[in-house]
Amino acid sequence: MPLSWEQLEQIRDEQLADDVPVEPHMLEWSERVATQYFESGGSPLLDPTAQPNLLHGHALQLQQDKAVHAWSALVPAKWLDYNGHMTDAVYGLAFAAASDASLTQLRLHGRRHFLATQAMTRHLKEVRAGDVLLAATRVLGVGRDSIQLRHELTATRSEGSAVVTIQETDLLHVSRGSLDGGGRLLERSALPREGARLARAIGLEQDTLPPPKHTGQGVRRPTAAAAASLYVMKAMAAAAPPLPPLKFTVCAAWTDPAGVILEEWYTYMCCCQEHFVTRAIGFDEARVHETGTFFAAESCVWHEPFVTKADDVLRVEAHVLNVDELRVHAMYEVWIDSSAEGVPDTPVATLEHILLHMAVAQGQSAHLDGSTRALTPMPEHWLRNAQRLCALTTFSPPTERSGKLLGTGVRSCGFETQFEDQ
Prior knowledge:
By secondary structure, the protein is of the alpha+beta class.
C-alpha cells in the first residue's frame, strides 16, 4: 500500500535519518522499502526508482565485478551485541533484505513469493557500528521453480574494506493460492519467465568467473578425531536438567502483508535459544576479557514449506551435538507447538551452527583483520558444562529437511533449464 507524506516522514524520523529528504516519488513505496532506505542513511542502492545499468537489454544494476549490487546499509549501534559486533540475528535480516532486493532487480517479484529452503552462512570477520555494508550477489543456478544465490557482504570503514560474511541460499518459488482457503502448505510454482531468463543470462555471465571458495559446502563439523577425544561425563550429566525449550507467540510485526511469518525471525528465535546455551556453558558477558567469548563461524538453516501465522505458538529446542575445547556444535529446531488449535506438532525450521571460543584483548575492539580475536581453548569448567549438555542430548539429528540432506551445502541446479516465450 502506498505511503502518505506524513508516514514517510514518520519512518524517516524513527530511523534517525533527519538529513535524508523525503521526495515525491517515495509516495509509491511500501513501508518496508522506505524503512530500509532511511535506515541505510539514504543509500541510492536501496532506492528502487534509481536508474540502473543495462545487461543484454534488461534493466539491472551490474558492476564491473559482474555481481548484482542491490542492497547496502549503514550499521547502527542497535545492531550490535555485547561483544561489540553485529549480532547473529541481524545477519539474517541483512541477507533477507539482500535476497529481496536482488530478486526484485531480477524481476522475480521479491522474496515474498519465495521460500528459502536452505541458507548456508560463513562469518569471516566482524562487523561493528558505523560500517557500511554492501551486498554483492551472484546467481549460482536457475531451475524451473528455484534459484540459488550467493551474497557476499563487504564492510567498509576507515581502515579499509573486506568481505565479512557470505551466504548461499536456495530459494523455492511458491504459490500462496492454498493459503486463501486457510491452508498451511506452500506449493511449488514456476518462476516468472522474464525474470528467469534475466537471472539465467546474468548467471551464465558470472559463471565465467572463477568459482567462489567453499561454494556448495555445508557446515564443517568437528572431525571424528575431535569427537573421539571428547570426554563425556555421563554420571555428572544425569544429575543436571536438560535445556528447556523456549516458546514464542508470533506477533503481527513478524509477518508479511499476507500474515505469514518472515523467515528471518526463525533465525532470531534460534539465536535467543543460543543465548541460553552459552550461559548454561558458563559464558558471562561481563567477563569476556577474562574468559573469552563465542563467535558463530558457520551456520546453516533449513525452512519447511509450512506456513506459520500470527498468534501461532512456536517452540525452539536446543541440542548440543558435539564439543571440544575450541568449539561447540549445536542444532536448534523450531516447531509449531501442538497446543495450537488444529495444527499438528510440526517442524518448520532447523538451524545448525558451529560456535568458536575466542579470546578478546582487553580494552580493544575488533578490526577487519581480526587481530583482537584469537581462537583459544575455553575454560576448563566451561568445557565440563558443555560436555554435560552434550551428554544430555538424546536427540538424533534428522537426516533430511525440506528434501535436503542435513550437513550438506546449497546445491546449484545449474543453468540448463530454458525459459522460452509461450
